[in-house]
Write a structure and sequence with these properties.
six-stranded mixed sheet; alpha/beta; Rossmann fold; 22 helices
């Protein structure tokens, strides 16, 4: 049976999966959500016998119903191949009383690879299915990781161009170097004078600009997105939560049907939303613990039912989470509002107009499985040092936010449920912050001296992604004001 997608702001808008992937964002500015969340049609025990690629097919076929088996398997096999440095694709490592789900074994050493390795294939397949002849322009804002993963995924993919905007002073040196050295005749990287929210707002404005869409159409272009607002990004993320549970089951770490917790370091809310969707599909998750850094807008929301971005934007050592407008939360709001698109649209208007909204008591009660927590910079650094000294295991700053929040949650709740922590980036991506947390003596070392020292301490080989940028030349040095983003896109496309 076909599964259709509707806009969170007008549920009269109804499209097939391939159309939702192509569009990225609905014409009214809403996000596409499935009519219903399908339930798994294979038992968890059966899934436990499958590898990552087979699990991906069993999950994704239920969401992408207008793809043939051959089309979907082709996309999956092209995505999850030797680009990943382990056959497991997303292995689990036990440390500090929890299972760390390592989502950083892809080409750009961050969890965004899990979805952005497959999105270009889903998108080009969708274009063929819908007889699209326009060139697809991927327009993306990044807080550090999405940008590089999207660039790597779309570089030299026929029929596409990709333009990535990032906050010039809001990403780690390694993240920036990864982006500005990106090869590919169809790739552009632009630093903006502003923060991630400014970049994301600028991108959304261009998506919603009807006049710009007309100009693009005449020039033979159409926009799509590689951000987690694209359902083609979100669906592949559900897979690794199903996979994590079935690995634990297959290895006898849990019994069939036993509940587990998930702790997810959260910025734009897509990663934890994928865990929630996995739960709705039938994976026995108990608590979904949303971990924030000092930009704790989501923590405050789960505490109070009020979402308020009117606050200081803080630059932290976990820059991919330095976000005050969590776009994917809109999908959850729509669901807890009883799929009421008018109510959702009103709340999003309030967010846009005054920077805040408050949900009803009834909606708040529908959030029972979520818990919020946050970690300060000091706590983030302390947990990196503790886990290294205790277990010899080194985690990055974003994973450390989650580990710190979990430590606090366990202390307060006395909940000893088996727990998976989403480990979203390799420590090699944030070497300076990670090494300074372990010992301040590293402060005087250069970025690449730190890389070599991290290899020595961790016993984990320097990833190819880091070796590649040691001597790579800078190919992108464009910078613009946040108010000039559209003008920059027009110049790049020659409009």
């Amino acid at each position: 049976m076909d599964l259709f997608y509707r806009s969170t702001r007008n549920n009269q808008i109804k499209v097939k999966a391939s159309e939702a992937i192509l569009k990225g964002l609905a014409d009214d500015g809403g996000l596409f959500v499935p009519d219903t969340i399908p339930t798994l049609d294979k038992s968890l025990r059966e899934l436990a016998q499958m590898n990552y690629q087979e699990t991906a097919y069993e999950v994704m076929k239920l969401f992408l119903t207008d793809f043939t088996e051959e089309e979907l398997k082709n996309c999956i096999n092209k995505a999850y191949d030797s680009k990943f440095d382990t056959k497991a694709i997303a292995p689990l490592k036990y440390a500090d009383g929890a299972y760390f789900l390592e989502l950083f074994h892809g080409a750009t050493i961050a969890f965004k690879d899990m979805a952005l390795s497959i999105l270009p294939h889903l998108l080009t397949t969708s274009a063929k299915k819908n007889q699209v002849t326009d060139e697809i322009v991927i327009l993306t804002a990044t807080s550090g990781d999405t940008g590089k993963a999207a660039l790597a995924g779309f570089a030299d993919v026929e029929g596409t161009k990709i333009i990535v905007f990032y906050p010039k002073d809001g990403v780690s040196p390694i993240q920036e170097k990864q982006m500005v050295t990106q090869k590919g005749a169809n790739t552009w990287v632009v630093g903006i004078r502003g923060n991630f929210d400014d970049a994301q707002t600028g991108v959304k404005k261009m998506f919603n600009n009807k006049e710009l869409a007309e100009v693009m159409k005449r020039a033979g272009y159409q926009f799509s997105s590689a951000n987690s607002i694209n359902i083609g990004r979100l669906v592949p993320q559900i897979v690794y939560y199903v996979y994590a549970y079935t690995r634990l089951l297959g290895e006898g770490k849990i019994a069939d049907g036993q509940k587990i917790n998930a702790v997810v370091p959260t910025g734009n809310f897509g990663n934890i939303l994928a865990a929630y969707y996995a739960k709705l599909m039938g994976v026995p998750f108990n608590k979904l613990i949303c971990a924030s850094n000092d930009n704790k807008v989501l923590y405050d929301f789960f505490q109070t039912g009020s979402y308020d971005r009117n606050r200081e934007f803080i630059l932290t050592s976990s820059p991919s989470m330095d976000i005050l407008i969590s776009s994917n939360l809109e999908r959850l709001i729509y669901r807890i509002a009883g799929n009421d698109s008018e109510k959702t649209a009103d709340l999003m208007k309030a967010l846009s107009a005054k920077g805040s909204y408050t949900i009803t008591e009834e909606m708040k009660q529908a959030l029972a499985e979520f818990k919020g927590g946050y970690a300060t910079e000091d706590k983030t650094a302390a947990v990196i040092k503790k886990i290294y000294e205790q277990d010899g295991y080194i985690i990055d700053t974003h994973t450390a936010v989650a580990a710190s929040v979990y430590e606090e949650y366990k202390k307060n709740s006395k909940d000893d449920t088996v727990t998976v922590i989403a480990s979203t980036a390799s420590p090699y991506k944030f070497t300076r912050s990670v090494m300074n947390a372990i010992d301040e003596k590293y402060a005087s070392m250069s970025d690449f001296e730190l890389v070599d020292e991290l290899e020595r301490l961790s016993g984990v080989k320097v990833p190819q992604a880091i070796e590649d940028i040691r001597t790579a030349p800078v190919l992108h040095d464009r910078v613009c004001d946040k108010s000039e983003m559209q003008k920059t896109v027009e110049e790049i496309l020659g409009l």
